[in-house]
Amino acid sequence: MELAQLDAFIAAAECGSFSRAAEVLHVAQPSLSNRIQSLEREVGQPLFERMGRGVKLTDAGAAFLPYAQRAIRTLGDGLFVLEGTREGTMGRLTIATAPAVGTYVLPRVLKAFHDNHDGVDVSVRTGHSEHVIQMVLEDEVQVGFGRPLTHPEVCTVTLYTDELVLVVSSEHPYAKLGDVSVEDLEGESLIVFDRTSGYYNLILSLFRDRGLVPHQQMYLDSIEATKKMVEQNLGIALLPAVSVDREIKLGTLHKVHLDTPEPVQREIAVMYRRNKPQSGPMASFLSLVAEIYAVQLPR
C-alpha cells in the first residue's frame, strides 16, 4: 500500500468526486482513479460507489477512512518531528559534565538553550573529566564538559578558566585580613572535597611546591557540603570561584586573597566527537556554547 493511494482515497472521500480530488492533489484524474482502483484491489473490496456526478463511500470505505486519515496524520507528525530534530527544536541532547561544571555553570547554559529549544529532551550525567571524555568516545553522550583532555577522535576547546579561591567563615580571623600566604595555611584545618578529582591534586601541589604539608582534618565528597562546613567555622577551604559566588555575596562565606605568584586555576573545556554527524539539538547547543564563551568550535 502506497501513501499516494491513501492520499487519493482520503481526498476523494472528502470531496465526493474524483475530479475535484484530482484538482486538490494536483494530479490528472486518470492517475487518481488508478491509485484508488489499485488500493481497492489491495484491500479486496470496493471503497467507493461510482455515481453519475460523483462518488460516495461504501460501508467498507467508511470503515477504512478513519484509519487511513490516522496513518497520514501519524506520518505528518513523524515528518514534523524529523524537521524539529534537523532544526534543533526537538529531539534529544545528552551531556556529561564534571560535577562543579554541572552544578554551577551548566544550569545557566541550559536555561538559555531551553528558552528556544523547549521541545528537546536533555539528559545530564556527571563524572570526573577522564570519565567524561570516555563517555564522549563511547557515544554514551554527545557533549562533555571538564578539564581539557585530548584524544585524536575528540574536539577539545577551552571555554573558560576556573579559579580556586580561599574561603573562610565570618568568624574566622582571616575574614578580617586583606590577604594571607600559603605558609599561613599550613597550621589551619583544611577541609578537602573530592580527593579523586583534579581539584584535589591542584590544591596539594600548591603546598608541595613550597615543601609544606597541609593539615587535612576533614574530607567530603561534595562542594556543597564543604561550603556548609566552612560556614560553621569547622575549617577553611579552597573552592572553585563559581561555586561560592552566591555565599560571598550573602556574606556567609568570606573570600580571602591568597598570595601566590600565579592564580590557582584550571581550564574548563567542551568535548565532543570529531567528524561525527551532529543532530539538530547537538549543533544548536554547541552554537550556543560558542556564542556564550566567544569561541570557535570546529564541526
What does this structure look like?
This protein is an alpha/beta fold and 299 residues long. It folds into three domains: 3-87, Winged helix-like DNA-binding domain superfamily/Winged helix DNA-binding domain (Arc Repressor Mutant, subunit A), CATH 1.10.10; 90-160 and 267-293, D-Maltodextrin-Binding Protein, domain 2; 161-265, D-Maltodextrin-Binding Protein, domain 2 (3-Layer(aba) Sandwich). Helix content is 45%, strand content 25%. Strands 3, 4, 5, 6, 7, 10, 11 and 12 form an eight-stranded mixed beta sheet that branches. A two-stranded antiparallel ribbon has the order 1-2. The protein is rod-shaped and about 105 Å long.
Topology:
Layout: H1 3-15, H2 18-25, H3 29-43, E1 48-50, E2 55-57, H4 59-87, E3 90-97, H5 99-104, H6 106-116, E4 119-126, H7 129-137, E5 143-146, E6 154-168, E7 179-181, E8 189-193, H8 198-208, E9 215-220, H9 223-231, E10 237-240, H10 241-250, E11 254-259, E12 265-273, H11 280-293
Parallel strand pairs: 3-4, 3-5, 7-11, 8-9
Antiparallel strand pairs: 1-2, 5-12, 6-10, 6-11, 6-12
The number of distinct helices, counting runs of at least 4 residues, comes to 11
Number of domains: 3
User: Pairing-aware structural class of the strands and helices?
Assistant: alpha/beta
| CATH architecture grouping of the largest domain | 3-Layer(aba) Sandwich
Under CATH, the topology of the largest domain is which? D-Maltodextrin-Binding Protein, domain 2
Described by strand count, sense and barrel closure, the largest sheet is:
8 strands, mixed
Mean pLDDT: 90
State the total count of DSSP E strands: 12
**Could you estimate the helical fraction of the residues in percent?**
40-55%
Strand content: 15-25%
Low-confidence stretches: none
Order of helices and strands: HHHEEHEHHEHEEEEHEHEHEEH
First-residue to last-residue Cα separation: 41 Å
